[in-house]
């Protein structure tokens, strides 16, 4: 269609030079440069150049009789080149807006994918540490804390709220790996972690299949509860079936590894309190007297069988169990004291195991501690080995893919699909005229205002960093108008004053708009600033202030429009043309211009129209000026031009012999043809202005949506980081994040590391067991747990202090707090990382003293007399992550066992340490003094010489400064 009309036009123009007949070259150039879908801007420019070349060639051929033909052709060339530049500029702006809209839409797609992925990841993280019934409450509270608190402190103190609920009539299962030391002795460290990871993962599968929820891993101890996630009346049967499945699982390990290991399982039914304690390393836990009974049921059980209480037996609904008297009171003093009747359930067709009870049992206040025996470590001084080994089952079912790896794999997979999603999205982008009028994208189709009025003012008040480019384009167009006027008409003093003033004004505006941008590139030192700061301030104010930009645009545009038509006044009441030959066979170019012209400024009046066309385009090059303002200014200009031509200068145009070629059949006079020509220019510019305005507003809506989605994604990312850091230490979480982005997360990795000089701390509140009481006055123990939460929160806050950044909380076990120092390394990229046992010991001792100080302060507020019993040991440990669906970071080794023994055999209100710890403190410059306690019996270790640390909280008359 464009080619057809172009050919028709040039056939007509080829008959002769059609000036003053207004040619359609302006339309063709704009159509070519702006509307035609050229793949590159270069092709658009070349096409416009071809149009100009053809027009100029035909004009030169047909204008031989025209006076000053070379001047007229040169003026035409200036007009066409300026039009070409304007068209290319408008095309560039529209393309920039379209591309930006496309990129913003792509970012929206990416952010939407990220939000979806973050939601899935958040859900998996929450499920890995919390049951579903309180996960949503925790999520909402974290989200509120992020919005209302200092985000830099979020990982330190996200919220301080008790998340504990009562659960009645549930079944509690405790399971312990019997002779687990044989696994440690026969397997390498990496194999041991992989085996435990796979073993506990299979336990998780069995528990989930039978409606049980795993609570926590305590070394080689596993415990879960049935009846929390769902209130099934079969919770007792579910627990028993889960226990039997665990025995079957450990049997397969025994046969595969040829190691004499088994499971000892105890189950009791009753009421519990379940929830979270503390601010760090959140782990769902349970408390109650019934929990203590379940723990002792495991301790008094028989390997290879399930040990249940009378309460649990009464709730069993199936009758296929092989139930026999348990006699648990003969194996556990607690069961005997409380006269608890027990039973044993033997797996079907399996002989009763004769495995003995391991020597290294640890019981304190009814809570089982670490029971991992000493392992043979290949740890060498000052060498940290960071290893990974995939599980024995390379490919696991969906339920076994960890929260850490699976969602990251899904995120990477979804991001790779963005391009495919964008292919479907591009067609739905509301950029066409039809979309402007019929698509409900949040923009009113007639006035192009936002449907949500709250978006209007922020949109209009946006800074416009492209304002300097608009002024530069205006300067180029104005120079084109000036050149045309200089070429065609005589220049007077008034002309130079008027045009010079406007030119100077535009140049000054350009300087102020550009100076700040240029100064950023040329300045080398802030102290060398010579340019006045007020100039820079004005430069920034120009593109940041909407009202100032509109004022500058309106003033300069009005002046340019005035300059383009002011010369018409000089043609008023002029009768300098010779009588016009109106015969149809008379050549227009032969009769139009008289050699006896009285006023040269009126010889080529159509150039006033062309100048007005260029002046009107100056209003459209300002991208961020409202399109209705542009329409108003151009409309006023058109009305003024129409008035001057039709009323004041009518004779000037009527004495022209020609009419517009396209209007001949309508018998329109020349002066009206000029007016209609400008009217069509106004319509074209208005259509382009509407398109640009629509794209700008659509882009703004996308930005608003993108900003909201990015904020949501950022919040979810922060939530996930908080959750992840509360599952794993920072250096371990970084390891998983980096590795899972590189590798296929369907392969489940068992992370582990060996550290040679780790200080380990156990700190318990022995009197809390007596303090805890379940009655109506303290809401069945809830008030007691609330006080325990306050204590643990205070301990967690100490970890946020700068000097304790290297202390890592491992877990809480009832009222016992476990932490270690020396697990983090500064450079994970190097195997040669310095380990400083003295620094680790001194830091952990300071931490223990700070815990005592906080507990002393809390005692005053709560009117209690709690005391800490602390045990500290130092030496090699193995750390790793076990569990896939619910990953848990833990440490094992003889150092951990000894630290636990230092606590359990210690004295309330004192810190008991090993000889190695005492020697390091003595050799250091720390103020801590130790006194020998002598030899004491430590189960699993025999007689050990231990030391008691002197602190202000055990002997008040001794003043010790703690640094």
UniProtKB/TrEMBL annotation:
Localization annotation: Membrane
TM segment ranges: 20-38, 45-63, 69-90, 470-490, 496-522, 547-568, 606-623
Entry keyword annotation includes Nucleus: no
Protein name per UniProt: adenylate cyclase
Region (Disordered): 350-376
One Pfam family recorded for the sequence: Guanylate_cyc
The organism's taxonomic lineage, starting at the top: Eukaryota, Metazoa, Ecdysozoa, Arthropoda, Chelicerata
GO biological process: one example: intracellular signal transduction
Family per record: Belongs to the adenylyl cyclase class-4/guanylyl cyclase family.
Chemical reaction(s) catalysed: ATP = 3',5'-cyclic AMP + diphosphate
Entry's EC annotation: 4.6.1.1
Gene Ontology cellular component annotations, sorted alphabetically: plasma membrane
Topology term for the membrane: Multi-pass membrane protein
CDD domains xref list: CHD
Cofactor(s) of this protein: Mg(2+)
Organism this protein belongs to: Larinioides sclopetarius
Superkingdom, natural source: Eukaryota
Classification via Gene3D superfamilies: Nucleotide cyclase
The Guanylate cyclase domain, residue ranges: 171-298, 759-903
Keywords attached to this entry: ATP-binding, cAMP biosynthesis, Lyase, Magnesium, Membrane, Metal-binding, Nucleotide-binding, Transmembrane, Transmembrane helix
């Amino acid at each position: 269609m464009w080619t057809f009309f172009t050919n028709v036009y040039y056939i007509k123009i080829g008959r002769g030079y059609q000036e003053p007949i207004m040619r359609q070259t302006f339309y063709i150039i704009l159509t070519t440069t702006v509307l035609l879908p050229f793949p590159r801007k270069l092709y658009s420019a070349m096409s416009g150049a071809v149009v100009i070349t053809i027009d100029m060639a035909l004009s030169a051929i047909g204008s031989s009789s025209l006076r000053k033909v070379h001047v007229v052709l040169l003026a035409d060339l200036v007009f066409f080149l300026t039009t070409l530049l304007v068209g290319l500029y408008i095309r560039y702006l529209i393309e920039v807006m379209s591309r930006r809209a496309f990129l913003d839409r792509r970012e929206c797609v990416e952010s939407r994918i990220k939000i979806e992925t973050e939601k899935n990841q958040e859900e998996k993280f929450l499920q890995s540490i919390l049951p579903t019934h309180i996960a949503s409450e925790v999520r909402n509270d974290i989200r509120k804390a992020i919005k209302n608190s200092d985000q830099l402190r979020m990982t330190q103190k996200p919220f301080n709220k008790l998340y504990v609920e009562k659960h009645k009539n549930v079944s509690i299962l405790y399971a312990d790996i019997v002779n687990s030391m044989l696994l440690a002795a026969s397997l390498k460290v990496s194999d041991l972690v992989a085996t435990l990871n796979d073993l506990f993962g299979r336990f998780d599968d069995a528990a989930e299949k039978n409606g049980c929820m795993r609570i926590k891993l305590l070394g080689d101890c596993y415990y879960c509860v049935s009846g929390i996630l769902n209130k099934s009346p079969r919770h007792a049967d579910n627990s028993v079936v889960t226990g039997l499945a665990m025995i079957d699982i450990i049997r397969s390990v025994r046969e595969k590894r040829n190691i004499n290991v088994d499971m000892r399982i105890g189950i009791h039914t009753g009421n519990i309190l379940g929830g979270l304690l503390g601010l760090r390393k959140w782990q769902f836990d349970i408390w109650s007297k019934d929990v203590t009974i379940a723990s002792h049921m495991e301790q008094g059980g028989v390997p290879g069988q399930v040990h249940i209480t009378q309460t649990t037996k009464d709730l069993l609904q199936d009758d296929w169990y092989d139930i026999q008297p348990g006699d648990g009171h003969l194996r556990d003093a607690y069961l005997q004291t409380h006269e608890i009747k027990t039973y044993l359930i033997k797996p079907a067709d399996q002989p009763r195991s004769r495995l003995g009870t391991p020597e290294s049992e640890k019981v304190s206040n009814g809570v089982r501690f670490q029971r991992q025996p000493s392992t043979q470590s290949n740890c060498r001084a000052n060498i940290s080995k960071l290893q990974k080994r995939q599980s024995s089952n390379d490919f696991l079912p969906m339920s076994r893919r960890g929260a850490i790896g699976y969602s990251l794999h899904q995120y990477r997979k979804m991001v790779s699909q963005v391009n495919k999603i964008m292919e479907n999205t591009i067609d739905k982008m509301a950029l066409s005229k039809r979309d402007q009028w019929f698509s409900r994208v949040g923009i009113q189709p007639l006035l192009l205002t936002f449907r949500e009025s709250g978006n209007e003012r922020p949109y209009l008040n946006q800074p416009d960093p492209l304002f300097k480019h608009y002024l530069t384009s205006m300067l180029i167009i104005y120079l084109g108008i000036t050149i045309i006027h200089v070429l065609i008409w005589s220049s007077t003093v008034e002309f130079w004053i008027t045009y010079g003033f406007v030119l100077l004004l535009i140049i000054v505006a350009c300087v102020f708009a550009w100076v700040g941008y240029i100064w950023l590139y040329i300045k080398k030192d802030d102290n060398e600033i010579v340019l006045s700061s007020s100039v820079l301030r004005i430069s920034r104010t120009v593109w940041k202030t909407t009202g100032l930009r509109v004022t500058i645009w309106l003033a300069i545009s009005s002046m340019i429009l005035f300059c383009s038509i002011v010369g018409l006044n000089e043609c008023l009441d002029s009768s300098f043309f010779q009588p016009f030959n109106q015969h149809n066979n008379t050549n227009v170019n032969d009769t139009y211009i008289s050699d006896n012209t009285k006023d040269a400024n009126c010889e080529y009046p159509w150039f006033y129209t062309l100048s007005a066309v260029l002046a009107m385009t100056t209003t459209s090059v300002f991208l961020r000026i409202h399109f209705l303002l542009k329409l108003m200014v151009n409309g006023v200009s058109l009305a003024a031009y129409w008035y001057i031509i039709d009323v004041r200068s009518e004779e000037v145009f009527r004495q022209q012999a020609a009419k517009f070629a396209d209007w001949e059949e309508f018998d329109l006079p020349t002066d009206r043809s000029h007016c209609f020509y400008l009217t069509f220019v106004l319509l074209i510019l208005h259509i382009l202005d509407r398109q640009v305005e629509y794209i700008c507003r659509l882009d703004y809506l996308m930005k608003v949506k993108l900003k909201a989605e990015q904020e949501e994604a950022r919040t979810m990312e922060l939530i996930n980081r908080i959750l992840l850091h509360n599952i794993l230490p920072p250096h371990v979480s970084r390891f998983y994040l980096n590795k899972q982005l590189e590798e296929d997360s369907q392969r489940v990795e068992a992370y582990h590391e060996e550290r040679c000089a780790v200080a380990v701390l156990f700190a318990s509140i022995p009197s809390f067991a007596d303090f805890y009481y379940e009655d109506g006055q303290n809401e069945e123990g809830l008030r007691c747990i609330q006080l325990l939460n306050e204590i643990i929160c205070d301990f967690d806050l100490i970890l946020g202090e700068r000097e304790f950044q290297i202390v890592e909380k491992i877990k809480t076990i009832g009222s016992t707090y476990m932490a270690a120092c020396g697990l983090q390394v500064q450079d994970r990229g190097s195997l040669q990382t310095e380990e400083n046992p003295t620094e680790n010991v001194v830091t952990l001792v300071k931490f223990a003293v700070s815990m005592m100080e906080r507990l002393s302060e809390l005692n005053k507020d709560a009117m209690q007399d709690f005391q800490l019993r602390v045990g500290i040991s130092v030496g090699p440990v193995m750390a790793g992550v076990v569990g896939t669906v619910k990953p848990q970071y833990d440490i094992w080794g003889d150092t951990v066992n000894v630290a636990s023994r230092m606590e359990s055999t210690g004295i309330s209100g004192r810190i008991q340490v090993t000889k190695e710890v005492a020697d390091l403190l003595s050799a250091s410059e720390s103020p801590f003094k130790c006194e020998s306690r002598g030899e004491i019996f430590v189960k699993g270790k025999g007689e050990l010489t231990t030391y008691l640390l002197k602190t202000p909280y055990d002997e008040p008359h001794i003043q010790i400064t703690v640094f």
